[in-house]
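Limitations

Structures in this collection are predictions, not experimental determinations, and the ligand pose is part of the prediction. Treat each record accordingly. The example that follows, with beta-D-fucofuranose as the small molecule, is included so readers can see exactly what is and is not provided: the inputs are given verbatim, and the output is the predicted complex.
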Amino acid sequence: MTIRRFTAAALILIFATLLTGCNAKPTGEQDTGAIVVGFSQLGSESAWRIGNTASMEAAAKAYGYGLMLDNANQKQEKQISAIRSFIAYQVDVIVFSPIVEKGWDNVLTEAKNAGIPVILTDRMIDTADESLYTAYIGADFLLEGRQAGEYLIKKADTLGKAHMNVVEISGTLNSTPMRERQQGFMQAIAGDPRFTLLESISGDFLRSRGGECMRYLLDKYGAEGIDVIYSHNDAMTLGALDVLDAAGAKPGSDDLIIISVDGEQAAIDALKEGRVNCIVECTPDLGESVMKLVEALSKGEAVPKSVHPEETVFTDFDDLADLPPRGY
Ligand code: GYE
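Predicted complex:
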C-alpha cells in the first residue's frame, strides 16, 4: 500500500471542516506523512460501543496514526456517506463497523477501485464478493450464542428443571451479532424438549428498548409464564432488569434465569448481586488488533482474512470476586 502524499494534519482539518454537524470527530496525530485511518463507527447505542470507540481512538494514538472518526448514529446511509468521504480524502485504510449485513457492495466497490483497503471490525457484511474487504476483526457471535445455550442446559440440569419457557430480546435485526447470537443459541438448545421459545423480539441493542420489550413480554406472559430471558446485550438486559424490579419479579432467581452478552461493568455487578445468571463475554477492545493490521498493511505484509478475539463466559457457577474492573 502506498502512503498517500497528503499530510494527516491537512486531511483531518479538511474533514473536520466539511463534516461539522455530522458528528465527525477528527482526532489524532498531526505528524506530516502519518498514516490516516478513516473509521466509520455505527453509533453509540451501548457502553460496549462507547468502549469500542475509545479503544480505537487510544490504539490509533498509540500507533501515531491520524484517525478520522465518524459516528453514524445507527444509520446505514450515514455510514455509506462517511465511507465516501474517506475515499474522497484518500485515507490509507478504511475501517468500519457495519450496522447491518447487506447493502455495502456499491460503496465498497468504490473503495476497491480507489485502491483503499477496507477492514471490517466488530460486525460482518453479507456479500458475494470477498475481495471487497481485506480483513475482518470481531467476535465469533455464533460461538457466543452457543455458549449462552450451553449455560442454559447446564443450569437446567443443575436445577433439575423439566421444562422452561424462554423469551429472547434480540439485537438490531439483520446485524451479524443479532443473527448469529440467535442461531448459535438455537443450535445449542435445539432438540432438547425442556425448552420452549415463547417469543423473540428485537430491542435494537438499546437499554430503553430492552425495557420496552420486557414490559411487553411481562404484560403478555406474566413473570410466572417466563422462566428464562436471553438478551443479546447488557444494555437491553439492564433495561429489562429495571422493568422486572419495578414489577416485583425476581431476576436471577431459580425461577427467572437471566442470560446476557457483553460483560460491561454494570451487568457484571448485577451478576455478582445475583440478579443476572450468565454473561457471555464480547470484548469491545478491538483497537489494538485493528491498528496492528493497519500497520501490517502499510508495510505491504499479508494479513489474515478473519481474526476473533479471545473471550470467556461469566456465570453464577464461578467465583467472580477477583475479576478486574471491566473498564467500560
Ligand atoms: O454486543 C452491543 C453493541 O456489535 C458486538 O453491539 C456488537 C454489539 C454489542 O451495541 O452491546
